[in-house]
Amino acid sequence: MLRLEKLTKQYRTGDRALAGVDLEVPRGQVMALIGPSGAGKSTLIRCINRLVEPTAGRVFLNGEEITRLGARALRRARRKMGMIFQEYALVERLTVMENVLSGRLGYVGFWRSWFRRFPVESVEAAYRLLERLGLETFYDQRADQLSGGQRQRVGIARALIQDPELLLVDEPTASLDPKTSRQIMRLICELCAERGLATVINIHDVALAQMFVQRIVGLRAGEIVYDGPPDGLDDKILTTIYGEEDWAAGRPRRSQAGEAAQVAIDEERLAGMAG
């Protein structure tokens, strides 16, 4: 579905954000991008849909080369690339329904979008998405009256109503509490599985990524230094991605009482097996 060939981004200052990245993401796979700040994660996502123009390399979506498209063809191609932003990017004064329907702007004419006259089928699709995301009672509420988690759900609905083939997600949980973060990640992964979407998620929370995604790609200084399953992220790999750190110190420790209880349970199981 998505293929990157030698994708490179170098700024006029000489700073290199991406250093010839080769990457493929098949249909239906949810992949997480991890790495330290400045590793190139957000740049990579924005080079895919050309919100940032790559310096060199090629991007293919479902066989079409995105990096060679002119302005009009790029607008059409972007219909198939849904984007979910860290800061939600909602229009605060518009309602939830109006924000969701803005995801259809690429499919309707200028005057229909200006007067917010969307086809009936688009409105019905928006209602279904809002119901799926638990926002069916908020459709006429202004975006600036929503919580962070509710705003992110609106952003998810806006991206999905495009009927995309690829979903690009930039730090979807950065401003959310731990419980809401899990709910948002679970929703994204469930919806992508239901729709068979190829998905790239830029995320700082490694533990959260390991909990939900199928594949993790680690970036450091614009280069891929890890590409594999979540359970392959051992201390050595984490050090390669982020640098030296006592990774074991961040893991939960079992209390002495908890260890004693576990020993008792194990002994009881062994006794039962012996009997």
Tertiary shape: globular
Strand order of the largest sheet: 6-7-8-3-9-10
Label the structural class. Answer: alpha/beta
Helix residue percentage: 25-40%
Helix-strand pattern, N to C?
A: EEEHEEHEHHHHEHEHEEHH
Biggest sheet record: 6 strands, mixed
Overall residue-averaged pLDDT value: 84
Stretches with pLDDT under 50, minimum 5 residues: 269-275
Instruction: Please compute the radius of gyration using only Cα atoms.
Output: 22 Å
Number of helices: 10
Number of strands: 10
Oligomer: single chain
Percentage beta strand: 15-25%
- The end-to-end span amounts to 56 Å
What does the model show?
This protein has 275 residues and is an alpha/beta fold. Helix content is 38%, strand content 21%. The chain has helices at residues 41-48, 71-78, 96-101, 110-114, 120-132, 148-160, 178-195, 206-212, 235-242, 256-274, and strands at 2-10, 16-25, 30-34, 56-61, 64-65, 81-84, 166-170, 198-202, 215-220, 223-228. α6 packs parallel to α7 (178-195).
Write the layout of secondary structure elements.
Blueprint: E1 2-10, E2 16-25, E3 30-34, H1 41-48, E4 56-61, E5 64-65, H2 71-78, E6 81-84, H3 96-101, H4 110-114, H5 120-132, H6 148-160, E7 166-170, H7 178-195, E8 198-202, H8 206-212, E9 215-220, E10 223-228, H9 235-242, H10 256-274
Parallel strand pairs: 3-8, 3-9, 6-7, 7-8
Antiparallel strand pairs: 1-2, 1-4, 4-5, 9-10
